[in-house]
């Protein structure tokens, strides 16, 4: 797995398009949010700003890069090549997705750290970390499922739109309006309960037990996405 | 040493939807053999090869490699090298990085520099794979297949797109592998290669073996041929000969030596020049052509 991950990391840094979508774009947007943090805090809260940056990195950087990477490695038969060796399927996928996942987590840590440094520290850092991990897991799993429906890296620009735009919209909606009304719907939509969780963790004032329940929907999405991925994922291009 | 065949295919059937790509195919490859799987386009050789390599599951029947299920990668892949029909390398990695990556994943040990030397790509070690020519990619693919000198090597159309020097160099490398005891499974469109090098040939047509055996066994059933041209106004040749559209004569015979002697004696006696005289046993090409008529 680490051998594949190393090769993948080299490829990420040699491919400008991937580098821009995966790293530069989310980082630039987040930097913009943080410099304008007073405006966003006025509209929502600091927690809202945290969810915005988190979902930009995970929804655009991590998710679309996951789909694009897998589609492109399949299209040029690199997946088949890896499967011609002794490496197992889980090790191959793990190796291919490890670098972008680690890069995204580091990015999120740096951005949220910067936000905390510029403003104030989150109320419950541990809960925040757990929330971030659950979002990362959900986006990677959704990426695996989406890759099954994606024929080429170009096609990924279309197939990733529903989830990346959808998750960002849900997150923005929940972040601004809270879950006071339409509670169940908002929590069940992908990213909804995770957004509420990040808000709670950063802003505080919510009993821990009430927050822990919010992991349920996100983990359910992970399970659904993985189940879809096992049915949809293909290792070789259609002929 | 055990007598288990390296590859054992037993009544293999592969269907895609309703289309049967391979029908009830059985064959074995023994240790140290060079076995060529040949066939017309769509005959099912790639499907068969991919099943034996472990890329595909049989619809029915059994495939064993080293006595194991070839899809058990951890068990069989360290012992086999695979040269794919289409390379499947990342264009952003260099030649040396690619050999090291794929080589390490085979779990065999070798030196990337050595295998690049084998295929004469040492000077390209630092070049990105995306900048290689088609022939160079084939050679890189061969290099990854022979990394660590595996016991079993699959070569799927290895010489397609190679110039004659590279082709000779590749076959030299295959000869050295075989001296080390490796078993080789080959598919190719160049029938001469199979004729010259294969110990046995499985000739596929419409998902089944049309014939299987040594080159001699395959060609024995068809007559040898004598081709020649005659000057205008020459007397009729002494043997039953058909005449092609180009005016050349063709004699088909199961007694090549005797008939050739007759023909040469006749030419000598009548002072006739036999132009472009060619005589020899049936070639695999002819066996292939005969498939269409059978």
Describe the structure.
Chain A has 239 residues and is mostly helical. Chain A is 82% helix and 0% strand. Chain A has one domain (2-232). In chain A, helix 9 packs across helix 11 (192-203) and helix 11 (192-203) runs antiparallel to helix 13. Chain A is globular. Chain A starts with a helix and ends in a 7-residue tail after the last helix. In chain A, 49% of the residues are buried. The mean pLDDT of chain A is 92. By secondary structure, chain B is an alpha/beta fold. Chain B has two domains: 7-218, Rossmann fold (3-Layer(aba) Sandwich); 222-293. In chain B, 33% of the residues lie in helices and 27% in strands. A six-stranded mixed β-sheet of chain B has the order 5-6-7-3-8-9, sandwiched between helices. In chain B, helix 3 (95-106) crosses helix 4 (112-118) and helix 3 (95-106) runs parallel beside helix 5. The two termini of chain B are 42 Å apart. The model of chain B has no long low-confidence stretch (mean pLDDT 92). Chain A binds chain B through residues 3-4, 6-7, 10-11, 14-15, 73, 76-88, and chain B through 53, 55, 73-74, 77-78, 82, 84, 86-93, 97, 101-102, 104-107, 128.
In short:
The complex is a heterodimer of chains A (239) and B (294). By secondary structure, chain A is an all-alpha fold.
- Quickly name the level 1 CATH class of the largest domain in chain B: Alpha Beta
Task: Using the coordinates shown, work out and report the CATH topology of the largest domain in chain B.
Answer: Rossmann fold
Helix count of chain B, per DSSP? 10
State the order of secondary-structure elements of chain B, H for helix, E for strand: EEEHEHEHHHEHEHEEHEEEHEH
User: CATH superfamily of the largest domain in chain B, called what?
Assistant: P-loop containing nucleotide triphosphate hydrolases
Mean pLDDT of chain B: 92
User: Termini separation of chain A (Å)?
Assistant: 28 Å
What is the helical fraction of chain B, as a range of percent?
25-40%
Give the assembly state of these chains.
Answer: heterodimer
| Domains of chain A (count) | 1
Percent strand of chain A: under 5%
- The helical percent of chain A reads over 70%
Number of strands of chain A: 0
Radius of gyration of chain A: 18 Å
User: Uncertain regions of chain B: pLDDT < 50 for 5+ in a row?
Assistant: none
Average of per-residue pLDDT values of chain A: 92
Main sheet properties of chain B = 6 strands, mixed
In whole angstroms, the N-to-C terminal distance of chain B is: 42 Å
């Amino acid at each position: 797995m680490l051998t594949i991950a190393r090769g993948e990391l080299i490829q990420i840094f040699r491919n400008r398009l991937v580098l821009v979508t995966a790293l530069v774009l989310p980082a630039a947007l987040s930097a913009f949010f943080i410099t304008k943090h007073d405006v966003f805090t006025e509209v929502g809260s600091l927690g809202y700003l945290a969810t915005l940056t988190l979902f930009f990195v995970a929804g655009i950087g991590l998710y679309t890069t996951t789909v694009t990477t897998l589609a492109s490695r399949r299209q040029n038969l690199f997946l088949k090549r890896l499967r011609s060796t002794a490496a197992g399927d889980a090790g191959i996928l793990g190796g291919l997705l490890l670098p972008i996942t680690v890069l995204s987590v580091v990015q999120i840590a740096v951005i949220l750290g910067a936000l905390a440094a510029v403003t104030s520290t989150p109320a419950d850092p541990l809960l925040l970390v757990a929330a971030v991990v659950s979002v990362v897991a959900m986006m990677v799993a959704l990426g695996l499922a989406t890759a099954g429906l994606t024929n080429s890296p170009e096609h990924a620009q279309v197939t990733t739109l529903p989830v990346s735009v959808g998750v960002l919209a849900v997150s923005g909606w929940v972040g601004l309006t809270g879950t006071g009304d339409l509670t169940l719907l908002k929590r069940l939509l992908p990213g909804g309960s995770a957004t509420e969780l990040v808000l709670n963790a950063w802003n505080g004032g919510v009993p821990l037990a009430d927050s822990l329940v919010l992991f349920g929907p996100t983990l359910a999405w992970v399970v659904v996405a993985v189940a879809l991925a096992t049915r949809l994922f293909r290792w070789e291009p259609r002929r | 040493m055990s007598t288990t065949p390296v590859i054992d295919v037993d009544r293999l059937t592969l269907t895609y939807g309703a289309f049967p790509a391979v029908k009830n195919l059985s064959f074995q490859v023994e240790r140290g053999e060079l076995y060529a799987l040949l066939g017309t386009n769509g005959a099912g050789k790639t499907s068969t090869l991919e099943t034996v390599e472990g890329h595909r599951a049989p619809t029915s029947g059994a495939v064993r490699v080293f006595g194991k299920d070839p899809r058990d990668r951890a068990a069989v892949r360290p012992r086999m090298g695979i040269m794919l029909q289409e390379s499947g390398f990342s264009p952003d990695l260099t030649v040396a990085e690619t050999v090291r990556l794929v080589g390490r994943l085979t779990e065999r040990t070798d030196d990337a520099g050595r295998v690049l030397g084998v295929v004469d790509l040492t000077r390209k070690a630092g070049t990105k794979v995306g900048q290689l020519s088609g022939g160079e990619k084939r050679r890189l693919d061969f290099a990854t297949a022979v990394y660590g000198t595996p016991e079993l090597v699959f070569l799927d159309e290895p010489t397609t797109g190679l110039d004659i020097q590279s082709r000779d160099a590749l076959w030299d490398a295959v000869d050295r592998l075989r001296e080390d005891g490796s078993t080789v499974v080959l598919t190719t469109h160049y029938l001469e290669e199979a004729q010259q090098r294969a110990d046995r040939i499985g000739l596929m047509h419409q998902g089944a073996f049309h014939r299987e055996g040594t080159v001699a066994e395959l060609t024995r059933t068809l007559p040898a041929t004598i081709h020649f041209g005659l000057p205008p106004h020459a007397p009729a040749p002494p043997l039953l000969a058909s005449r092609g559209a180009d005016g050349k004569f063709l004699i088909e015979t199961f007694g090549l030596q005797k008939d050739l002697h007759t023909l040469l004696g006749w030419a000598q006696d009548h002072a006739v020049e036999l132009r472009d005289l060619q005589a020899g046993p049936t070639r695999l090409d002819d066996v292939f052509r005969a498939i269409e008529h059978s």
